[in-house]
Amino acid sequence: MRNLPRKLSLLSLALAAVLLAAGSALAPALADDETKPVSTISGTVVSSTSTELVIETETGSRMTFAVDAGTTWVSRPLAGDKVSVKYHVLSDGSYHAADVSHLASSPPSSSSRYSESLPQTATPLHLIGLGGFVSLVSAGAIWARSRRRT
Question: Exposed, middle or buried: residue 101 (CB in 10 Å: 0-12, 13-18, 19+)?
């Protein structure tokens, strides 16, 4: 029973080390989106769904962009709308639309749904850090309590 506080302290320190290592491993992966170069292209919308946007550029070529919660736009474009797309190239060579805006010569269609998404700024790193901090405080409290008993 006397070794229980020491075992709990070691367990708390081990948990803190694991959380710290997990945070360090996740940080580069989560920061990848912010470091990718962004390009811009404009064209006419061919189709738009909840997962992809297809446009025809001024040169006549078609480009397909993946869209998700990280894509920002004031309203979803409809076929025929002229848009400007800020995008980055993913590791598999496909395109991800970061921002879609209507060009001044083509205002958003009146029948389009208004949809505004919030910026994707939250990451789990804060929770991982908080878990490590709580583990360290717990280990310190257990260690201090065990020192008081002796």
Answer: middle
Over the stretch 36-58, which tens digit does the pLDDT of each residue have? 678 899 999 999 988 999 999 99
What is the rounded CA–CA span in Å between residue 85 and residue 50? Answer: 16
Which of these CATH numbers, 3.40.50.150, 3.40.50.970, 2.40.50.320, 3.30.428.10, describes 36-102?
A: 2.40.50.320
Nearest CA-CA partner of 20 in 136, 123, 137: 136
d(CA 43, CA 25): 39
Tens-digit pLDDT profile for residues 94-126: 999 999 988 865 445 544 444 455 556 667 777
- Residue carrying the six token digits 């639309």: 97
CB-based contacts of 14, cutoff 8 Å, min separation 6? none
- The reported pTM is 0.49
108 to 38, 65, 71, 140, 149: CA distances (angstroms)? 24, 19, 17, 59, 72
